[in-house]
Fold this sequence. Notes:
The structure is a single chain. By secondary structure, this protein is an alpha/beta fold. The chain has two domains: about 5-245, Zn peptidases (Aminopeptidase, 3-Layer(aba) Sandwich); about 250-315, CATH 2.40.50.100. It contains eight helices and 14 strands. The chain has helices at about 35-50, 65-70, 95-105, 145-150, 160-175, 180-185, 190-195, 215-230, and strands at about 10-15, 20-25, 55-60, 110-120, 125, 155-160, 200-210, 245-255, 260-265, 270-275, 280, 285-290, 295, 310-315. The chain has an eleven-stranded mixed sheet, sandwiched between helices. Strands 9-11-12 form a three-stranded antiparallel sheet, with no helix packed on it. Helix 4 links the parallel strand 5 (about 125) and strand 6 (about 155-160). Helix 1 crosses helix 8. The protein starts with 11 loop residues before the first strand and ends in a 7-residue tail after the last strand. About 40% of the residues are buried.
Amino acid sequence: MTTARDLQFKSINYTGLGKGPRLIVTGAVHGNETCGTKAIRRIMEELDSGKLLIAAGSVTFVPVTNPLAYALVRRSGDRNLNRNLFPNDAPQDFEDQIANWLCPLLAQHDVLLDLHSFNADSEPFVMMGPLNNDGPLQPFRHADQERALARRLGVRRFVDGWLATYGDGVQRRMSDQSQLETVLRYGVGTTEYMRSTGGYALTLECGQHNDPAAPDVAYRAIMNTLAFLQLIDAPAPAPVAAEQMEALSMVVVHDKADKGDAFVRTWSSFDPVAKGQQIGVRADGTPVTSELDGRILFPDVNAGANQEWYYLTRVNPDFAER
Length: 322
């Protein structure tokens, strides 16, 4: 059986002769999400063979970010790497060890493309960060660049609002506000950490875990990113047309109050919901209904009491060409 002491971390860098941005592309942050790993290795083969050339700037590839989870063919090793991602002077688990290697590596770059997949059948989508702001939760100043890149990854569905919505849920469920900052840190993953270092970042969900098309989605996104950032000599990719886009903002997260709370049907991410439509039922029989017209996101039938149960999103009419 694979153990942590059998493993090592690996990143591969290609640097061009010209000046340009520093890109990092990560795969298998979750070990059972392998489409990014396959796409990264395909790109590296083209670079190593001379078919593809980094002409300016640099790109660092991390084909397998969590080698323990990858070896075990499961989402996590000891815990979810994409939560509470910070360097740790006293690492408690394998993911802490990854963070001590990965966080300084992220900080050496300007742009992150993090490649993932998901459980249910649905189309690919990209998770974006906040608009420019000086707020305490996630100050940011690269929204224009981040959203311009998002529109050129080759997908049509865009979601923002993760950390703010997660943070609102944390504050609502906490009785001890003195622990607020500690719990909010749990919402920080690869992209949030990258933004905290002054860069910008996108999470691309490339499709269902076993979808044979998902590695092609990841490959196209990497190639489009290389071209858009002018790291390779290739035409700039066109943005997805405005009439084809579906832009959504996460608005609210609802928790399970009791392990007996249940959905009234099997929900998948991006299923539409109407205001007043019943989504679930509490253990005491109280119906749970939607407070808005939108789409459900990340419904978790296996959530425990006082854990995130599902998110609701609504159309973001302000997402436009950047």
